[in-house]
């Protein structure tokens, strides 16, 4: 919050390193949500399953890592709580949570979090129940010990729905009038390039050629949700409100 407010007060842009917000599917889904056509969000499902357990152990590259969305070491950065602050949540879930806030424009109100380390010093498996401002409910979770890669976001709204599969590169939008919009699949090579778009967008912003593709508020909302989830898990699953983070 402090960094976001400092940037705004200084008339500067703060860009977050979230590559998924540069996907044409994310941009289209955000456009539909902002139009208000689908009405209020009622239920959110957000999952990120990936293979990063080797990093969370402090080892090298994952044996079954994704060629499209690679994670880079050294493992010590991810395996030591004093350096990372946590495991699967901070390393991986942050990306899908960021996508959620980018597309849906929501903000968490309270979070119930459960996490399991499975012998590691940091969390490997996360499950979160979230109440958002406005009344929407959601489930957010994932595992870093997966043998497949899943990055899914579903938004079920008053008058329609959005179903995004970032691994398959597909998105389905069910409009209020009953029509179904299937977005053209994003090729693997284009999705692989998205990880470079964060730095490219930063250069373009400095040169005045583009706006901010991953606004500070998206990262701020993601940090709030994850901070509340870690605190909740540390308190045995007690609900933690976002308001309490600032007390």
TrEMBL record:
UniProt organism field: Kouleothrix aurantiaca
One Pfam short name: GFO_IDH_MocA_C3
The protein's name in its UniProt record: GFO/IDH/MocA-like oxidoreductase domain-containing protein
Domain spans labelled GFO/IDH/MocA-like oxidoreductase: 28-162
InterPro entries (UniProt xref): GFO_IDH_MocA-like_dom
